[in-house]
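To: structure desk
From: M.T.
Subject: fold request, one chain
Message: Could you run this one when you get a chance? Sequence is below, nothing fancy, just the single chain.
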Amino acid sequence: MKKNNIEEINRNIYDIKNKDEYDYKIKKGLTPEIIAEISKQKNDPNWMREFRLKALDVYNKLELPTWGPDISELNMDEIATYVRPKTKLNSSWEDVPEDIKDTFNRLGIPEAEKTSLAGVGAQYDSEVVYHSMKEDLMKQGVIYTDMETAVREYPELVKKHFMKCVPVNDHKFVALHGAVWSGGSFVYVPKGVKVDIPLQSYFRLNSPESGQFEHTLIIVDEGASLHFIEGCSAPKYNKVNLHAGCVELYVKENAYLRYSTIENWSKNMLNLNTKKAIVGKNAKMEWVSGSFGSKISMLYPMSILNGEGAKTEYTGISFAGKGQNLDNGFKVIHNSPNTSSLVNAKSISKNGGKCTYRSLVKISENAKNSKSSVSCESLMLDDISISDTIPVNDIQTDEVEFSHEAKIGKISDKTIFYLMSRGLSEEDAKAMIVRGFAYPISKELPVEYAVEMNNLINLELEGSIG
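Reply: Done. Structure tokens follow.
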């Protein structure tokens, strides 16, 4: 019997488990002593140590969100917030320990670096273990390094921007991030510099009952451009892991930034990530997002259009299976005239999985002649899955163009019958429909990542259709 493509995909690549070996692992819990110890282990300057302790105080004062998925199972007394692997930061893959290097080799990171990337950062648990960038970008003044190095070597630039786009009191898990952050990437693209080949950071969590709290800070100066790719994955464990990273993006006047993400966390992960961009005059911010893993996700990238003529686009897809509750969406604030936003969100749910699209579009009183268009489509593969759309639209001026469209439905029996009449099996017909539904997202990704996204769709479909 001919095997279909879905069955031939090997899912083991994403579930690689190395031994839980580390150089140092902080004890579980959240206390001022633990935060001070993390700061000591990181060799923080005094200002960062004080920042962490203040963030912990804010964390303790804020309540858990009550409007989204139930995250009451999260117990920070059972989470280790800092795990240092048995290696230092390396600039050559040959110097990375074999077990860690083997994991990234299987994920295809070194090969992608050779063929399609201008620079790579690779994080394992709480530390960046590998970082490199092409020499011609260095000569143009581009900075691409791990966040700890940036704190030490570019203190004024970091101080000016660190947790200013995402303030520490934004919500409870931002405050947590501010207290325990570790790893992540720092990028600065000087005025007028065009980075034609993408940079990429990949985050891998290996240690059970731990958290990953990387901080990504990107500044694209006036007239500059960049495509940055973020990938992440983790093996599955029986107990909760936590991801509460933070991404801060500054897109200055006439600049351009595309931020692409494929998230493939394991099904025991709580993904409580926060991402925001501040967009300047005539600048453009693009988000491309694929969310496939995690038990619970609460993720709402946000663009703040502060400059006249600023633009943002969001293209995203979520795929929730059994036991998953993916609460994702997008937020945009129009603060100036002639700004525009375009949102294209899709979700797929199967085997009782739940997808929620939660959004905010705010057009302020002085954002006259602005335009916003939101399209949200949901596809359910069975009768037990759930899909919700919860938009909030706050339009404070009449001099705008605004539209919101939402569609929720199941796979059409007529479409399946038509494809089967052309020789496809029912399983292949359904898989083709799903991949076609996701195509507007995958076509926005670089080829290698579009392939990965299609593989992830195949993995999610495996054994669930027919």
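Reply (cont.): The first helix runs from residue 5 to 8. Let me know if you need anything else for the meeting.
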